[in-house]
Amino acid sequence: PAGTGHGPRLPEHDRILQEIESTDTACVGPTLRSVYDDQPNAHQKFMEKLDACIRNHDREIEKMCNFHHQGFVDAITELLKVRADAEKLKVQVTDTNRRLQDAGKEVIAQTEEIIRCRVQQRNITTVVEKLQCILIPCVILIYLFDKLFYQLFIRKNLYLPRVSQYRFCQIMIENLPKLREEIKEISMSDLKDFLESIRKHSDRIGETAMKQAQQQKTFSTALQKQNNVNYGRNMHLGRNRILESKNEITLKRTFEDEDEHEEEVLTAQDLVDFSPVYRCLHIYSVLGDGEIFENYYRKQRRKQARLVLQPQSSMHETVEGYRRYFSQIVGFFVVEDHILHVTQGLVTRTYTDELWNMALSKIIAVLRTHSSYCNDPDLVLELKNLIVVFADTLQGYGFPVNRLFDLLFEIRDQYNETLLKKWSGLFRDIFEADNYSPIPVANEEEYRIVISKFPFQDPELDKQSFPKKLPMSQSVPQIYMQVKEFIYASLKFSESLHRSSTEIDDMLRKSTNLLLTRTLSSCLQNLIKKPHIGLTELVQIIINTTHLEQACKYLEDFISNITNISQLTVHTARLYGLATFKDARHAAEGEIYTKLNQKIDEFIQIADYDWTMSESDGRASGYLMDLINFLRSTFQVFTHLPGKVAQTACMSACQHLSMSLMQMLLDSELKQISMGAIQQFNLDVIQCELFASSEPVPGFQGDTLQLAFIDLRQLLDLFMVWDWSTYLADYGQATSKYLRVNPSTALTLLEKMKDSSKKNNIFAQFRKNDRDKQKLIETVVKQLRSLVNGMSQHT
């Protein structure tokens, strides 16, 4: 029975638990009531069942918590970390918000300012519209009143008598003289303002006019080129088609540039309002004071002309000073020309011509003075270009400018002088930098670079293989290129002078001649005279001048190609470069002879003979052997010189050596000479003769070079052989063995030996041979003296 009593209630308890778990809290009451409605012990069993269910759920919850515990711990850890970052972010957001608020204050202020400006702009627009509506009727009214008053003022004698009976007419008649003076004063004040305005704007007006003249000239030049192209098209249509296209494109671009400039360039009327002149002239003419106004205007303009023509003291320092000076003058005369053509009688052609002649004389005097201070050729060239534009501009307005072009010829001479000074420095720098040795060329490319700068031709050298050396030094092509650059620079000044090609050719040749004969020649002469220039350098200078002399014909061809003037023209000048380089070469040759002689003298000065030696050393002196070695090595360098130059140098050196040795023997300070010294001296002369016979320079015929020592040889032979009988017997005969021995020379040397013999042989008078020798010497001395006296009496 117990089993049957409890069995059915167990599922009921489960159902009740399910309802409690699944139903809403408000519906739990009826469910719980059903538990108490059953048997008394049912409540206890339900509680047990409920506890069991709770424990079951606790176990599930514990399992779930155990499963998610680690994740929960990690989440708490991350949350703690995020809290620190969240605090930083909060601080940054707060700071950003503060800065944004601060920045927004300025934006807000600007926005408010813009709002106020927009409001003001709207108000201004409204006011302008209202004023336009109001002013147009006012302007019309003022114009009508002015016109009416003007008519009454001008025609007072016509209209006022008709209404003279009215009171207002009497008032007008009384006020008209006062109004007339006021109008004259107002118009004169406007005129003064006008004169001040054109004085300020004259440079701008002149600059505008000069630009227009220069553009017109460019346009004319381009048009002339186009006409030449069109003319050539008919003759060489096929061959010149490409060239014509290029010229057409150039002309088109020129025209486009002209159009652009025409849009930008303003005229005098655009820059200055001439209405005050017209108005004042008209008022004074109506009032009968036109002549007074004309005299006043001309007087004021003459004063302004004097101010314009007065240059600044530093005008010559920059081209801008000249440009401003010319612009002011052009602006002045452009205004006068405009007044001349738009008014009647205020300015006449006679007046403007007189004013221009006065101004032209002043301009020429100023330019002549200030240009003389200029030493920069570039500045002189820019001045010339300004004068040309200045003259072309005023010529376009009808003013004669021939005297300005005559002045340009004076400035051209000064320009050439500045060029010559500049090129003199360039030549000096080139000579200073030159190493005075032949130009080495390692390959064909280097060779072509050199001959592209200098016209050098040598078939024999062309046959040689690389590397090889050109005979001239580096200065030769540089000098040649600088001469061509000088011609280009001189040509720049000749452009735009309205001169024919023949005249330009003549000017170029004259200036080039000045460069060659004066500047380059002076630089060469100074170079040759410099103490550091030795024999090797002098030899190279002679070679250089030879090649430069040969290149003069190419310079003439160069000028002819530039000017298109044939050299066969009768009036074509010739270049004087041949004479220039010949003179330089002759000076270098003379300097070679001088330096050789100086070097020989240096060796002679270190000679140390023992004139009392009893016998010779048996060999030549050391100083003389050094001298001969020096001469031998020097003459080897002379192989590149022209043959006659080397031969002359060699002959001059030998003659000078012979004369120096002779002077050494005959020196007045040398009192005694022994026979041993004569023998030693003879050995030295033999070495000189051997050197001469070795032909140190090729080209001498026979023993020509040895003849330089013939005087010494015959003199020494006479004393060495002691052949006085033959000398005295054959003296004066053409076949004499000692024909070159002068009696006075022999007497001087013999007296030196006589004194030496007396001093060294104190006891010689006790030996018969010595007594005989002394007697012979005295006899020869007497005979030589008689010959010398006879020669002096004969002369």
UniProtKB/TrEMBL annotation:
One Pfam family per UniProt: EXOC6_Sec15_N
Protein origin, superkingdom: Eukaryota
Cellular component GO terms, alphabetical: exocyst; plasma membrane
UniProt-listed GO biological process terms: Golgi to plasma membrane transport; intracellular protein transport; vesicle tethering involved in exocytosis
Domain Exocyst complex component EXOC6/Sec15 N-terminal residues, every copy: 49-135, 157-210
Record-annotated Exocyst complex subunit EXOC6/Sec15 C-terminal domain positions: 404-752
Keywords from the named record: Exocytosis, Transport
PANTHER family: EXOCYST COMPLEX COMPONENT 6, SEC15
Annotated family: Belongs to the SEC15 family.
Function: Component of the exocyst complex involved in the docking of exocytic vesicles with fusion sites on the plasma membrane.
Name of the molecule in the record: Exocyst complex component
Species whose genome carries this gene: Catharus ustulatus (Russet-backed thrush)
